[in-house]
Amino acid sequence: MAVGTAGRLWARIGTGLAIAGAVGLGLVAMPAGAGAAPNLPPVSPEDLVASVEKANPGPLAGTVELDNALGLPAVPGVPELANGTREARVWSDGAGKGRVALPSDQGEKTFVSDGTTAWSYDSTDRTATKKTITPGEHRPEAADPTRSAADAIARLRTTSTVSVDGTAEVAGRPAYELVLAPTPTERTLLREVRIAVDSEKRIPLRLTVLATGSADPAFEVGFTDITFGPQDASLFTFTPPPGTTVKDAPQGGPDRDETGGARPTVVGDGWDAVVIAKRPEQGQAPQGGPDLSRLGTPVNGSWGSGRLITTAVASAIVTDDGRLAAGAVPEQVLTEALAK
Predict the structure, then answer these.
(1) Per residue in 243-271, pLDDT tens?
(2) What would the CATH number be for the domain defined by 25-236?
(3) Which of 93 and 3 is assigned the larger pLDDT?
C-alpha cells in the first residue's frame, strides 16, 4: 500500500494503519474457503515468488470473505474493521479497471475505476466521491484484487525467511502455501504471513496473518469463489444515481495525500516499519469518525504524551500534539520512532 493511502486510512481509523501500512491488509483483496490439500509438483520458494511477481491472470470475478479477529475497537463509519466475518464482490478487467462491492446492514459501498476516474459510492447516505487517476497511480479499491498480496511479498521479502509449506485448496482451486516469517532482527508482533498461491494462475487466493503466541489467525481474507474470463464492460463505469451528492476528492501532491493533508512518514522498513501521520484537527475528521483521544491507555516519554492502542497484531500511539504512530510492532518500537 502506498504511504499516501496508508495515511488516509490512519486519518480515519487509527489502529487500522498498523495492519494496512505494515502488512498490506488494508485492501479487500486477496482472499478464503479451503478444502483438502491437493498433490502438486514441488516448487522452490524463489520460483514461487518469481511467478507471483510475473502473474497476469487477466479478467476475473469472485466473492471475497474476510475473517477479522484483530480486536480493533468499534469505529463509527468503518464497520468492516470490527471483529467478525464479512463478504465482498470483486471484478477486474485485468488491465486496470475494477469494481468492489461491500454490502452492509444499511446498504452498500461501491468502488469503481475505469482506469482514468475512480468513484466511491455509499448507498446509505447517497454520497459519491470522484477522483481523477494520475498516470501510474494504483487504485486499490478497484484494481486487480490480487495485487496487494504481491505488493506485500515485495515489501516483506528482504526481511523474511521465505518457504513453501505444503498445499491447500482455496475456492475450489489447488494452491501452494507460501510463508513469510520475520527474520530474528525484526521487532514485530507477527509470527508469519501465509499466502495461498493459485498453482495455475500464480495469483494469491488467500492471505492469513498469524500473531506471535497464537495458533488462530488474527486476520484472514480470501476468495470463496473465483472465475476467470471476460467481464461485462458496464461494471467498470459509474453514473451517480439521481439524488446523489457528488464531490471531488482532493488531488495529492509531493507533500500532500489524496485528502489534501500532509503525507505521513515511514520510520524503518519491513516488518517493524512505523507509519507516523498527522492526526486530523478537531472538526476535520470524517463525519462519524472516532475520537481517537479517548481510546487506549495513557503513555508518555521523551517524545511527549498520548494514548496507546493495542490489538493482537498491531499497536498505535495517538499523541497529544496531534500525531499518529502505528505498526505491527510493540510499544517500544513506536516510541523510538516518535523520538526520532
Answers:
(1) 999 999 876 544 444 444 567 888 988 89
(2) 2.50.20.10
(3) 93
The percent of residues in the chain predicted with pLDDT above 70, rounded, is 72
Tell me, what's the pLDDT at 147?
59
Please compute the mean of the pLDDT values over residues 138-147 and round it to a whole number.
45
- Domain ranges in the chain are 25-236
A 10 A CB-CB count for 132 gives 11
Q: Parallel, antiparallel, or unpaired for β 127-132 and 245-248?
A: parallel
Residue 82 pLDDT level (bands cut at 50, 70, 90): low
Residue type at position 233: A
Contact 68, 82 (CB under 8 A): yes
- Judged against a pLDDT cut of 50, whether residue 334 lies above it is answered with yes
C-alpha cell at 162: 521465505
Q: How far is it, in rounded angstroms, from Cα 214 to Cα 212?
A: 6
HSE-up (13 A, CA, CB side) for residue 336: 12
**Which residues is 110 bridged to in the sheet?**
101, 121
- pLDDT > 90 fraction of the chain, expressed in percent and rounded: 41
Strands in the chain per DSSP E: 34-35, 60-68, 84-92, 98-103, 108-113, 117-122, 127-132, 160-170, 173-182, 190-198, 204-211, 219-228, 245-248, 265-267, 274-278, 297-301, 304-310, 315-319, 323-327
Whether 145 contacts 113, CB under 8 Å: no
Rounded Cα distance between 67 and 55, Å, is 26
Confidence band (pLDDT; 50, 70, 90) for 292? Answer: low
CA angle 229, 100, 289 (to 5 degrees): 170
Closest CA to 233 of 102, 95, 79: 95
Q: What is the predicted pLDDT for the residue at 294?
A: 67
Q: Give the whole-angstrom CA distance, residue 254 versus residue 201.
A: 36
What's the CA angle centered on 54, arms 220 and 51, to 5 degrees? 65
Return the SS3 of 163: strand
- Residue ranges of alpha helices (H) inside the chain are 3-13, 16-23, 45-54, 147-156, 331-339
